[in-house]
Structures are given as C-alpha cells and as structure tokens.
Amino acid sequence: MPSAAVRFRLERVNFWYGSHQALYDITLSIPARAVTAFIGPSGCGKSTLLRLLNRMNDLIEGTRHTGQVLLDGEDIYAPGQDVVELRRRVGMVFQKSNPFPKSIYENVAFGPRMAGWRSGRALDELVERCLRQAALWEEVKDRLHTSAWALSGGQQQRLCIARALATQPEVLLMDEPCSALDPKSTQAVEELILQLKQHYTIVIVTHNMQQAMRVADFTAFFYEGRLIENGPTAEMFAHPKEKRTADYLSGRFG
Ligand SMILES: Nc1ncnc2c1ncn2[C@@H]1O[C@H](COP(=O)(O)OP(=O)(O)OP(=O)(O)O)[C@@H](O)[C@H]1O
C-alpha cells in the first residue's frame, strides 16, 4: 500500500472455526486515517477477518488462528495483551443497529460509565460531542432522556456509531453498517464515514460495491478465504489485476 502510516498489519494469517479453515495466509496492511473496504462474495471471510482485528472471534468457542495481527506494530494476540483495552481502542458497529433499552443519553454514556466516568458536566459534554460527531445531535438534543428504541433505523445506527465513539477509539470496524438502512439513512451514514476518517481508521465490510467506491480509499477483495487483490479503490475498480476481481466487480458472480 502507499506511504500512509500503517495502523494494522496482518502477517500470514490463517483462521479456523473448529476444523473449518475460513482464512488462508492473509497478509495485508490497513492504513491509518483512511477507509478500507473488505469486499467479496458471501462466506469469503470478510466478517471473520474484521472480527480478528478486535479479538471478537475469541468469544466463539473452538476458533484459532496462526500468523500475526499487529496494531501499531504490536501483536494484539501476544500473551498479556489487555483485550478490554484493545476493544476500547478498536470499536465496532454491527450490521443491525443494537441500541440498549435505555435512553439516548445512556446509550452513549454507557462505555464511559463502565470506564469510571461519573455523571456531570464532563460526561454531558462527551455525550454531546459524540452525538455531534455521529451527525445526530440536532435530531435528538431535545429528547436525550427518551428511549433509544423510539429512533428510526438510520438514527439508531448513528446512535450506535456515537456509542462506539464514546470510548474514544482509534479504529472503527463496521460490519455492513448500512445493509438494514434505507437510501437516505445510508447516505447519512456514508457522509459520516467520510467525516470520521479524518480522525479515525475505518474498516468497513460491505456487499455494496457502489458504497465501496463512494467511501473507501482502499479496497481488499476476498474469495474463499483468500485475499485476491487489494489497493487504492479507484485503481482497483478501474484496472483490476486479477480475473476473479474483474469478474466480481462486473457482477459476474457473488
Ligand atoms: N461462528 C461460526 N462458526 C463456524 N463457522 C463460521 C462461523 N462464522 C462464520 N463461519 C464460516 O466461515 C466462513 C467465512 O464466514 P464470514 O461470515 O467471515 O464470511 P463473510 O464474507 O463475512 O460472509 P457474508 O458476506 O455472508 O457476511 C464461512 O464459510 C462461514 O460459514
């Protein structure tokens, strides 16, 4: 990849669910303060690879990997690594928005409270800042203490982004964040992603190639657990080097 600072570096990563190998020999750099998209047909391992980046796969019994996953040069799987701190640094937003059954305010305040923040002005300011960053503040500022479940799907997804931002992460992992959203909400979330990349490293799994074109600086194409090709998005879409990439991008399969 080009000269941008590397945030994640994967070195020869293999991954298994029990005896089923889902990833093969993945070597890939993920640049800082840019958006990287993982694309490829269903089941090719995009989500598995995303979950390796903040050790969410640890929660699935019977999984194991070989190779190295380096964050700022440090192996996140090395003995003694603090997984709670890792997940604070590497936040995650899921396909289906999943606000807690609490108020809008408490959804955003949840992570900071777990980290020891008390009620007060500093917490109010943090909640406001995150809601502003998630482009939701104007829509909810008069009803912060009402249920998050009363928000629309697109608003709930932006709330989940605000909640992820509240622990002050460095990286945001997004697993198909727009797949349950209508076009207008999708546009709002995409605009947000473009804003956020100024401060955060973003990795997004998407089935939507137009979305990858619109938001991603870099794209990695996977097929049957292998990384087939990666590089700057515009270049890869215009001139794919591999036939399988070209076939996928042209809609011939997937
Ligand atoms: N919890 C699990 N237990 C066992 N196998 C799994 C599990 N999750 C995923 N797999 C398998 O690992 C492979 C990769 O799955 P993964 O969900 O990473 O693919 P994906 O590219 O994200 O797919 P999709 O686009 O459909 O979400 C698939 O063969 C899948 O069946």
TrEMBL record:
<keyword id="KW-0813">Transport</keyword>
<dbReference type="InterPro" id="IPR003439">
    <property type="entry name" value="ABC_transporter-like_ATP-bd"/>
</dbReference>
<protein>
    <submittedName>
        <fullName>Phosphate ABC transporter ATP-binding protein</fullName>
    </submittedName>
</protein>
<dbReference type="InterPro" id="IPR003593">
    <property type="entry name" value="AAA+_ATPase"/>
</dbReference>
<dbReference type="GO" id="GO:0005315">
    <property type="term" value="F:phosphate transmembrane transporter activity"/>
</dbReference>
<dbReference type="GO" id="GO:0005524">
    <property type="term" value="F:ATP binding"/>
</dbReference>
<dbReference type="InterPro" id="IPR005670">
    <property type="entry name" value="PstB-like"/>
</dbReference>
<feature type="domain" description="ABC transporter">
    <location>
        <begin position="8"/>
        <end position="249"/>
    </location>
</feature>
<keyword id="KW-0592">Phosphate transport</keyword>
<dbReference type="GO" id="GO:0016887">
    <property type="term" value="F:ATP hydrolysis activity"/>
</dbReference>
<dbReference type="GO" id="GO:0016020">
    <property type="term" value="C:membrane"/>
</dbReference>
<keyword id="KW-0067">ATP-binding</keyword>
<keyword id="KW-0547">Nucleotide-binding</keyword>
<dbReference type="InterPro" id="IPR017871">
    <property type="entry name" value="ABC_transporter-like_CS"/>
</dbReference>
<dbReference type="GO" id="GO:0035435">
    <property type="term" value="P:phosphate ion transmembrane transport"/>
</dbReference>
<dbReference type="InterPro" id="IPR027417">
    <property type="entry name" value="P-loop_NTPase"/>
</dbReference>
<dbReference type="Pfam" id="PF00005">
    <property type="entry name" value="ABC_tran"/>
</dbReference>
